[in-house]
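Write out this protein's structure.
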Amino acid sequence: MMFDKKLLNKIRSEFPRAATDSNGRQRVFFDNGTGTLVLGRAAEAEAAARVNCSANVGADFDESRKAMALIFDGRKSVADLLNAPSPDTIVSGESATALLFSLSYAIGKELTGKENLVTTDYEHYANISPWVELERRRQIRAVRFTRLDEEGALDIEHMQSLIDAKTKVVTVSAASNVLGTKSSLEEIGKMAKEVNAYFVVDAVHHIAHGPLDVSALDCDFLVFSGYKLFGPHGSFLYGKKEWLEALEPYKVASSPKEPPYKWEWGSRDQSFFASMRGVVDYFVWLADQVQDPCEGTLAQYSGRKRSLKAAMTAIEEYEKGLSEAVLFGIDDFEGLKIHAKGESLRTNRPKSSGREGSHIRVHG
C-alpha cells in the first residue's frame, strides 16, 4: 500500500487540527467545511514571513528584499505545482471569484456583443457570475450551459453542439463541488481550440485531489484557491503569458505594465506566498514517503516537478480506493446502497465511458 497506517499517522501529524478541533473534540470527517485543514508547516511559514518580513516590497533594505524573495519563491512553487512554464504566468488575488471577474472584464473588452460563452450546469457561482455579467452588460449575446447526463457527468455531445464559430470562451470546473464529478478537460480543451476560444479551467475543487498540468492541458487560464489546498485564503490564476500580456485588466496606473504584476492590485502579501511554498514542500515530502506510483513514467518531468506529480498521483489513487470502499464496501463492511432502476450499484457498476466519476474529498 502507498499509504500504510504508519504513514497515515505521519500525514495526520502534519495537520494540527486533524485529530481534535480547537475545543478538544475528536473529529470524524464526512464533509470538508468547504475548505481543507490548514497544514502546520504552511501556517508556520506564513507566521514567520509575517513577523520577520513585515516590510513592504520595493525598497532597498533587508526585510524588503527578503519579502520580494518570498513572493518570487512562492510564485515559482505554484508554477512547479501546475507545470507552468514560468513564475511570470502566476497571478495572485484575493479569491478565485475576484480573479475570474478580473479575467472576464479583460476578455469582455475584446468582445462585440455578438459572441457566446459555453460553460456547464455544475459550475459554482465564482465561475458563473463573472460571465453572466458580460451578458448583462450586452458584451456577449449569451451564456450557454451544458447539461448533465443521468449519472451526473457532462453531456459532452451537448457541449459540442453549443460550441460554434461565435464561441469566445469555454469555461469548466475541473471537478464539481457538489457531485465530485471530474470533467474531461483534454476533450473539452480540444473543442475550445477548434473554434479559437479561450479555454478557462476552474480548478478550485480539484486542486487537492490529483495532478494538474497546464502545459499538457494547453488551457489558457486556470484558477485555484489556497484554502482549498491546505493554506490560507487567497487564490492564484495561471495564464498563458501571451494572453496576460495582450489582455487589459483593471490596473492601477502606476503598477508595472508586464505580467503578472499588471494583473495584481496593490502590494502582495509575502506571507501568503510563503505559506504556499510550505504546501508545495509538503507534497515534495509526501512524494519521498510513498512508494512511487509513477515508477517508470513521468519521464517528461524532473526534480521538484516530478515529485509533485508523483505525490498528487498517489493522493488521487488513494482517494479512488476510498471511493471504492465507501461505495462498494471493504472486507465485511458493505458499501453505500446506491440504487439505479432498483438494482444495487454493487452489481450494476456503470461501464467506463471515458468520463471519470465521483471522488471523495479527504484531508491529506
